[in-house]
Specification:
Layout (H helix, E strand, L loop, with lengths): L7 H21 L2 H51 L14 E6 L5 E7 L2 E7 L5 H16 L7
Antiparallel strand pairs: 1-2, 2-3
Helix pairs in contact: 1-2
Amino acid sequence: MTAPQTRPDVLLSRWHNLWACLQSARRRGNLDAVTALGSDLVRLHGQMRAGYRRWQRRQRAQDNRAAQEAKAARKAARQEINAGNEGLKLVPVGTQIFLERQPDGSWQGALLAEGIMVEHNRADHRGLLHRLSVLWRKERFARSPRIVGG
């Protein structure tokens, strides 16, 4: 059976009270009181250490949990940005896409949606639309409020 948990500030105030009583008994020369108070101080000190260690473990667990949640949120955002063939489905309705073939045979593309415009050049037209949508989602994510904690 474990002892009931007491708040650290209450334990500390008890410790200070016991310490003051111990000093007073020592000044008066009351050795029986000094012995009893000393053993109470040792027991209370052990409780304080156990409480502090418990608090440390709890804080470490909370910190780890917060870091894991932030990591999961970043991973979800990254997966949303780099969604495979779903790229064009994730841009909003009304998106304007411009493709232009250059004299050297390469392709230049631009995508405009929600006031965000991205441009990209590619030697081949295949994958250009997907790349534009990925660039647009990255830019949109960069402009959105960040998730705190990570």
